[in-house]
Structures are given as C-alpha cells and as structure tokens.
Amino acid sequence: MPCYRCGARQTDPVRGASPWKRGVRHEAQVLVCPDCQRVHDLDLDTCASCGSVALICRLGEVECRSCGAVRLARSNDPLVPAGRPDPAGRPGASGQTNSPGLAAEVEAALNRVLGRS
To answer: Rounded to an integer, what distance in angstroms lies between the CA atom of residue 67 and that of residue 50?
Structure first.
C-alpha cells in the first residue's frame, strides 16, 4: 500500500520498527511515509474523545490507540470509550456490536475467503 499523500511505495524495512505510520482518513486505513509525516496538516481523522490521530481501522470499526475509544466505521457516531456504553444506550466495545448483521457479514466474508460453500 502506498503513502496516501505522495504515493511513495514502502520498501523492505531494515531491522527495527518501520518508520511508516498508520492512520485513518475518511474511514479507511492509510499509510504515511516518513517524508509526509513531517507535514503538520496530514488531514487524518481524529478521535472525538481525545483528539488523537492514532487511529486504526479494522473489521468495520475505528479504534483510538490513545484512549481506547471505538466506533463503527462509515458512520457519524462519536467514538465510545472501550467497554462502556455510550449515552444513547448503544453498546460500546464490550463484546457487543451495534449492528445485528455484523456476525453474518463476517461469517460470509470468512466463507468467501476460505472457499467454503
């Protein structure tokens, strides 16, 4: 996956941690190359709870790596701290999902990937 800003491709890293950083932009996981990280306005999504840009997007959820808040991707819901219900009474990241069809979608995706019928 290339850098979302400049299109540079990641090369095989030397030993140690990668200088590339992950972020979330418009509800999608992106990579940021070391050169673009020096730019102060990366236009990345931020956490509604703490303002951090240390977000990751996986399996339809966006999680803040700073405070642990989680929300469904592709929604306008504010991030909810992990393990706590939000004020509207919807479950947070305590093992329950906000979408009743999520389990069926995950099962269908696994069946496609694993070649099950």
So the answer is: 7
Q: Please tell me the total count of domains within the chain.
A: 1
Say if CB 61 and CB 55 are below 8 A apart: no
Name the token pair of 55: 């977000």
pLDDT value at 76 more than 70: no
- Decide: 31 and 10 in contact? Cβ < 8 Å: yes
The whole-angstrom separation of Cα 100 and Cα 46 is 26
9 in a domain, yes or no? no
pTM, to two decimals: 0.56
Asked if 97 and 103 count as a contact pair (C-beta separation under 8 A), the reply is yes
Query: What is the residue range of 101's domain?
Result: 45-114
Q: Which residue has the higher pLDDT, 50 or 83?
A: 50
Average pLDDT rounded to a whole number, residues 80-94: 45
Is residue 70 in some structural domain? yes
User: Cα dist. 106→94, 102, 103, 111, 113 in Å?
Assistant: 18, 6, 5, 9, 11
